Amino acid sequence: MGSASLPRPWRRLKSGPALDFGIFRLRRETVAHPRDDSEHQRVVIDAPDWVNVIPITRQGEVVLIRQFRFGIGSSTLEIPGGTVEPNEQPIQAASRELEEETGYRPGRIELLGSVHPNPAFQNNRCYSYLAQDCERVHQGHPEAGEDIAVELRALGEISGLIAAGEITHSLVICAFYYLFNASARRPSP
Predict the structure, then answer these.
(1) pTM of the complete model
(2) Alpha-carbon distance 110 to 121, whole Å?
(3) How many domains does one find in the chain?
(4) Which residue of 38, 54, 56, 114 has the fewest CB atoms within a 10 Å radius of its CB?
């Protein structure tokens, strides 16, 4: 196999005004094709970074949440997560979202990895964290627009829940991918 040359960047010719939808801003850009300078329209979603947290209790159970998702018109089984607030570090957002949504507080928390949710038109990242030794300190304080049910499942059930289509959120599956691959590389005690 020969080495492939990298695609050249597209030059931005103009950027339209952004429409603000609260959780993201949508803007249209006019860009020039790098090979022939032809003009093309693109849409970009300016969104804050997100976090997802895999919380594991001292008893080895994963704290999952169920909530209604309007995009698919159905409830999903997920892990806690949300947006990183301005002037907040992702690790702080992970702890905050975990406690707000579930009432659990982590004993320790570590970054597993991060992904671009959809780089075709989004400019943000989603950070996945592992929160260990989680203890429930209250019943949770979800935001006004959230209705969340907390479920505990054994870590060993997660792969089966994904395979059975019980867990379908792609960013949640990415978080578990990071966890399972990190676990496979850790030496046994």
Answers:
(1) 0.89
(2) 28
(3) 2
(4) 38
pLDDT in tens, 140-164: 988 888 899 999 999 999 999 999 9
User: Using only C-alpha atoms, what is the Rg of the chain?
Assistant: 19
Token representation of residue 59: 């008893």
One-letter amino acid of 142: P
Q: H or E segment at 184?
A: helix 170-185
Same domain, yes or no: 91 and 174: yes
Residue with tokens 């993201």: 24
Strands 50-57 and 126-136: parallel
Residue 177 sits in a domain whose CATH number is 3.90.79.10
pLDDT tens for residues 32-52? 999 999 999 999 999 999 999
Look at residue 1 and tell me if it is in a domain: no
